[in-house]
Amino acid sequence: MWHPSRVTEAVLLVGGQGTRLRPLTINTPKPMLPVAGVPFTVHQITRARDAGVTRIVLATSYKAEVFRAFIDDADLGIEVVIATEDEPLGTGGAIRHALPFLESGPDEPVLIFNGDVLSGVHLEGLVAHHRDTASDVTLYLTPVEDPRAYGLVPTDHDGRVTAFLEKPKTAEEIVTNNINAGCYVFRRGLIDTIPAGRPVSVERETFPGLLAADALVTGVVDKGYWLDLGTPLSFVQGSCDLVLGAAPSPAVPSIGDFLELPGAQVSPDAQVHSGSVIGSGAVVGSGAIVNGAVVFDGAEIAEGAHVVNSIVGVGAVVGAGSVLRGAVIGDGAVIGRGNELLDGVRVWPGAELADGSVRFSSDA
Ligand code: GTP
């Protein structure tokens, strides 16, 4: 039986191009990139399932076929329906496009998730707040230390959202540290009011429009774990936090200092730490150090290489003695031995880098 503090349907927004994570997102849409051993989307779907969601609509656009192929074979214990936009409709347009795929009645709550947020928010609490306040929309808000990079969402004493502010430019404009954390509860009937068939931004158009129309938009501040996995560094951090057990997900294969997927080969004298993942069929050679990094399936970290806070794409090769710190290596790229790639360097899929001149201990 439907319980008022539960919610049975959700929409997961997974159609973005993930430009900040290029070149990893050239072949794979961001929510399908493996994080702690499974596609990121699986962490979100299983968290929603455990909160009582029984049906989820995946709002896809960019590389929709990758989701389709995965979902066809997956058994996640929840009904997953795929809605695909012909043209990307933006966050609000995607929610509106998902409407015909929803079965909820007009007054029932529907959960909406951005497809790149890792969080420990108490979903039942969010829905209970939505019901208790009879809100039109309830937003999950998270406090951030430095809010300058984000739009701000101030609330009044009753938790009612008073404004959606652009990124603050001066100290005076920082009126709150709370930002939109990328998860909402919508009264289903409100989704009907989003214009159909054209791009709509839920952040820039729908939410401000609701305030202007005097709709009841409330915020719930949750101080628990929150991370937007949109950049390479935060992607690595999210994966490591999941492996270390610092971020919550029912889908992590095993929690520990590192995660070695079936078929990985790690040399006994290699050092793998700090929540690193070694993908299926990947090889880590003698004396290599992998620290707080994500090594995708079939990649090779040759002897003596150091891979720190970095991502190594599917089948990519990091040559002997090479040093990676804060680097992203695209699928199938080959980094010759003795290279040093630091601080945000990105290597495109299939690229080949000649040997460098960094020496390591086993060099003559
Ligand atoms: P960047 O390009 O790196 O900013 O990443 P992104 O494409 O994911 O964009 P952004 O982080 O702003 O998107 C927020 C969420 O909405 C993500 O989960 C996206 O997948 C999703 N999203 C963005 N645009 C669309 C769209 O046009 N259609 C659908 N279905 N989802 C979208």
With strands numbered from the N-terminus, the spatial order across the biggest sheet is 5-4-1-6-9-8-10
How many helices? The count is: 7
Quote the average pLDDT: 94
At CATH level 2, the architecture of the largest domain is: Alpha-Beta Complex
Strand content: 25-35%
Give the terminus-to-terminus CA distance.
72 Å
The backbone outline, from C-alpha atoms, is elongated
The first-level CATH class of the largest domain is given as Alpha Beta
Bound molecules: guanosine-5'-triphosphate
Structural class: alpha/beta
Q: Strand tally, please?
A: 28
Question: Explain this structure to me?
Answer:
It contains seven helices and 28 strands. It is an alpha/beta fold and 364 residues long. The termini are far apart. The chain is 19% helix and 26% strand. α2 (64-73) links the parallel β4 (55-60) and β5 (79-84). The chain has a seven-stranded mixed β-sheet with strand order 5-4-1-6-9-8-10, with helices on both faces. It has two domains: 4-228, Spore Coat Polysaccharide Biosynthesis Protein SpsA, Chain A (Alpha-Beta Complex); 257-361, UDP N-Acetylglucosamine Acyltransferase, domain 1. The model has no long low-confidence stretch (mean pLDDT 94). The structure holds guanosine-5'-triphosphate. The site of guanosine-5'-triphosphate has 23 residues, from β4 and α3.
